[in-house]
Amino acid sequence: xxxxxxxxxxxxxxxxxxxxxxxxxxxxxxxxxxxxxxxxxxxxxxxxxxxxxxxxxxxxxxxxxxxxxxxxxxxxxxxxxxxxxxxxxxxxxxxxxxxxxxxxxxxxxxxxxxxxxxxxxxxxxxxxxxxxxxxxxxxxxxxxxxxxxxxxxxxxxxxxxxxxxxxxxxxxxxxxxxxxxxxxxxxxxxxxxxxxxxxxxxxxxxxxxxxxxxxxxxxxxxxxxxxxxxxx
Length: 232
Prior knowledge:
Oligomer: single chain
Largest sheet: 5 strands, mixed
CATH class of the largest domain: Alpha Beta
Order of helices and strands: HEEHHEEHEHEHEEEH
Mean pLDDT: 82
Number of domains: 2
CATH topology of the largest domain: Glutaredoxin
Shape: globular
Low-confidence stretches: 1-9, 11-62
Helix content: 25-40%
Number of helices: 7
Radius of gyration: 40 Å
Structural class: alpha/beta
Number of strands: 9
Strand content: 15-25%
CATH superfamily of the largest domain: Glutaredoxin
């Protein structure tokens, strides 16, 4: 019996047995292998580094990437030429005068990011068709302004074929109750874009690029509205 007890005493530490009252319990000897790894500050940092690396790359991409310019930034300067006078060409930055005598050019009009498309018309005091279309132009502006359309009336001559004046523009605006821009084109710079004998002219211009989308003689409301619907 003493021999058996002696052998068991040598075996118990080797097997990692612990004697409790009435039983033997096996325990893992630390020397047999490393304990299971639990997350600690180092492993968390390593995990964070991995996740942060990906996240950091994403953040870095957002920070280092190019932010698309806003509308005011895009329209800060006028598009470069070459300029032309026909469909599909960029229109030059033409200048006018409002009824108060303030100079107005296409750049100042396009700087208003409320609008993305312009319908530019020519009118004269002697032009019967021009007078008849004014209520239609106002209705067009009222119907599409919230979608980004501005309608611009330019006057180049009065009833006697004399160059238009600010007084003519003011009276024209008040006579037809126009809330759209009414401008004076005394030098008739828009005369280069069509035959004045076919006045009025209707021109659709993309205010982002200042590209002439369409030039038409006269004003046909249904056709203009169809084009506006397509371009807006």
